[in-house]
Amino acid sequence: MEGLFSHEDIRKTYEELAWHRRSKDIIQEYALNLKDIRDVALEGIDATKAAAVLDLGCGYGFFTEKLTGRLRPGAKIIGIDVVNHSNRQTFLDTVTLMGYSAAFIQGSADMIRDMADASFDLVIASYSLYFFPHLIPQIARVLRSSGIFIVVTHSRYSLQELTSFVPFSMKTAGLQMPEDLRINMLFRSFSLEDGGLQLDPYFRDVERIPYENSLVFPLDRFDACIDYLDTKKHLLLKEVNDVHPGKFDVVLAVLVKTLFDHARAHGKVLITKDDGIFRCRFPVHGRRVA
Ligand SMILES: C[S@@+](CC[C@H](N)C(=O)[O-])C[C@H]1O[C@@H](n2cnc3c(N)ncnc32)[C@H](O)[C@@H]1O
Predict the structure, then answer these.
(1) Ligand 1-lining residues (CB < 6 angstroms)
(2) Which of 27-31, 178-182, 246-250, 266-270 has the lowest mean pLDDT?
(3) Rounded average pLDDT over 140-157
(4) If you take atom 18 of ligand 1, which residue's CA is the nearest one?
(5) Are 170 and 176 in contact (CB under 8 A)?
């Protein structure tokens, strides 16, 4: 099942492992919040009895690698991602190095519909649940009663400085401004602000942990801001790609120029990157799930 973004859009954004890593490095280098969100997500969690772990939208294993030494010896971690490419090998190598057993399945997270009830101790969706929020009931179903579901997600206001310039950039390039951007719809489809309401019917305990953050690029590091934008361009400019692919580079150039003017006027670019974590326990079993 494809949602707001097609698997082809997703592939364009996440296929290039080097890009994905670059994006994470930039976030770490320019973030105001110095805590690693994965450490915040795992703080106080005892997963030493966890033998079966499922990472949905695992990518190359960014979150998984933080589980080192935290699981039961011999635990198995299954990663599912629509994008194969270099994700598969990197994910498998990461888990093997951690001393656990690994499987990577290329495909949509929807495949969990075919997985057995109560078969995982830990399910993770790190920056991915907004692609498949309709699977929350299925996630509760495959989680054991004693298990935990950890979600890392964005605030609906994340990247608002970038998204606010997109309609103007489209207009300047002679295109009609969209009423809403697909990337904003994506962030709203499972966000820090509203995600709790989506989880509540399926878990008896939902803990919400906000993680405030901003990326600040000084004017003399504007190049890093552009690199970051580059890793997000297919999500940010989805409307342009869909309807006027020939204008993609023009709109991107206007967006970069607009950002640069902003950076010159303010001496920096600040991008809101507020995220959040949900830790869900006691899945409600026995509900009919679609
Ligand atoms: C922002 S990345 C996050 C990757 C990794 N979990 C992390 O924290 O770095 C989102 C990932 O979700 C994957 N994805 C998107 N839609 C998916 C779907 N329907 N099923 C499985 N994976 C999906 C993408 O391919 C991408 O690797």
Answers:
(1) 10, 14, 57-59, 62-63, 80-83, 108-109, 126-128, 131-132
(2) 178-182
(3) 97
(4) 108
(5) yes
* Residue 141 pLDDT greater than 70, yes or no: yes
- 135: CA distance to ligand 1 center in Å? 14
Mean pLDDT computed over every residue of the chain: 94
Element (H, E) at 45: none
Sequence letter at residue 80: I
**What are the C-alpha distances in Å from 222 to residues 103, 160, 161, 185, 274?**
39, 18, 15, 27, 21
Distance 27 CA to ligand 1 centre (A): 17
Q: For residue 160, what pLDDT is reported?
A: 95
- Residue 106 three-state SS: strand
190 is written with which tokens?
Answer: 């499972």
Domains and CATH numbers, the chain: 1-30+158-182+215-272 (no CATH), 33-155+191-213+274-290 (3.40.50.150)
